[in-house]
Structure formats: C-alpha cells, structure tokens
Amino acid sequence: MTAIYLREMRAYFTTPIGYIFMAVFLAVSAFVFSLTTLLIQSSDVSTYFLIIMFVFIIILPLLTMKSLAEERKSRTEQLLLTSPVTLTGMIAAKFLAAMTMFVGALLVSSLNFLVILKFLPEDSSFNLAVLAGNLISTILVGMCFIAIGIFVSSLTENQLIAAIVTIGILVFLLFIGFLNSLIDSYVIRYIISWVSIYNRYGNFSNGIFDFNAIVYYFSISIVFLFLTIRVYERRRWN
After folding, report:
1. DSSP 171
2. DSSP reduced 3-state for 75
3. Each residue's pLDDT tens digit, 190-209
4. Residues 200, 137: Cα–Cα separation, whole Å
5. What is d(CA 233, CA 119) in angstroms, rounded to the nearest whole number?
6. pLDDT surpassing 70 at residue 238
7. pLDDT at 125 exceeding the cut of 70
8. Which of 164, 159, 171, 165 is nearest to 65 (CA)?
9. Nearest to 85 by CA among 31, 138, 8
10. Is 228 helix (H, G, I), strand (E, B) or coil?
11. Between the chain's N and C termini, which has fewer beta carbons within 10 Å?
12. Residue 167 to residues 7, 65, 153, 193: CA-CA distances in angstroms?
C-alpha cells in the first residue's frame, strides 16, 4: 500500500496534473479570498469557503480522473490486480494520495487568513471556531468528492469522460439541495435533504460541531470506495 501511495504522489509531480491542480487551486483561492474578505473589509470567512466548495466541482476531478482510468488505458491495471497488495489497500493508497494533495493545497491556501488581523479593522471580529468549522467541513466535502471521482475513474479508461461524469455527479449532489424550496412533498424534501451534500455543510460553516454530518460524509466516502473495490473484484475474476 505504501509503495502505491508513494508511486501516486510521485506521479502527481512527474506529470503536469499536480502542478496544474496546485496552481489553479492557489490562484483561485487567493482571488476569492481577496474578493470576499480584503476588498470588502470583512472577517466573515463562510462566503469564501462556500465559493471554494463549488470550485471543487471543477478542480478536484483533475486529481481523480487519471487515478484508475490511466491504469486501465496503459494496461498496468493487471500488474495491480496481480500484485500482493489487496484491492482495498490499492484503492486506499490512491485515495490517500489524492487526499494528501487536496488537504496540502487547502492548508497552504489557508495561510491567506494570517493577513486578516493585519488588514481588517481593529473592531472586526474574527471567529476561530467558524474558521475551524469551515476548514473541517471543506475537508469532509472534498473527501466525498475524491471518493466519487475515484469510483468514476474505475469505470472508464478515458480520463476526460471520468472528469466530465464526476463533475456531473458533484453538480447533482450539491445543487439538489436547492430544489427543496420548489417541492411541496415532505417525503421528497426529506430524501433530498438526506442526499444533498450541501445541506450537511451549514452547521460546520457556522462553527457548530455536527457529528451526524461527519458520519454522513464518511459514509458517502466509504460507500463509493467500496463500490470501487467491487468493480475491481469483478474485473479480477473476469
């Protein structure tokens, strides 16, 4: 598992993918940060993280689109399937490599908040609990997105198709929560609220610890990683 993890991390920086992801992520986050905090002299970070969450729809598939699709296209998939590493270990290594890139970029971009105390008015209130809650919820949402992207990547050998399908699923899971106001049926609204990733985001963005949301995000991630393992189990026996 460690060997695959290190191989994946090395691949991010021996191909343009890792550099493109880091450059786009840091550039966009700096731009959004300047618009939502510095230019309007605001200490409210929730808008920044909300926008960044929607940016993930586009940039996180960059990390996942090649994770398994490239293995299938280059015919190195058989080496993984016959290696002494378990399928669970293989998928977990690829997932952890993508998470390392994502969390690393997020933490680097979060250094932007060090300038808040210097540039904002002295009477502005900067709530560390809200910042921590937004960081945690952003990591949890990103974790779900990466698990979904890896699953989609296991279904095709075309990286572009993997990226487009992943973006479509992420758009659905985020925007479905906005349909509640248009639906009269309580049962349907309840189902949509349960499925929607966005609806679970609110408490954390206000600095409130939501254990149910943590369970939900981990459950979604585990389900899609399990489905990925099942895809490869079937492929191994076929």
Report:
1. H
2. coil
3. 777 777 777 777 767 666 77
4. 9
5. 54
6. no
7. no
8. 159
9. 8
10. helix
11. C
12. 26, 10, 12, 20
Residue 123 has pLDDT above 50, yes or no: no
User: Measured in whole angstroms, how far is the alpha carbon of residue 189 from the centre of its chain?
Assistant: 25
Q: Which residue has the tokens 């618009």?
A: 35
Question: Helix, strand, or coil here: 121?
Answer: coil
One-letter amino acid at 80 equals: L
Q: How many CA atoms lie within 13 A of 192 on its CB side?
A: 17
Structure tokens at 179: 């349909």
As a whole number of angstroms, the distance between CA 214 and CA 200 comes to: 9
Report the alpha-carbon angle 175-181-183, nearest 5: 100
Averaged over 23-34, what is the pLDDT? Answer: 90
The letter for the amino acid at 53 is M
Tens of pLDDT, residue by residue over 54-92, are 888 989 998 888 888 777 777 766 666 666 778 888 889
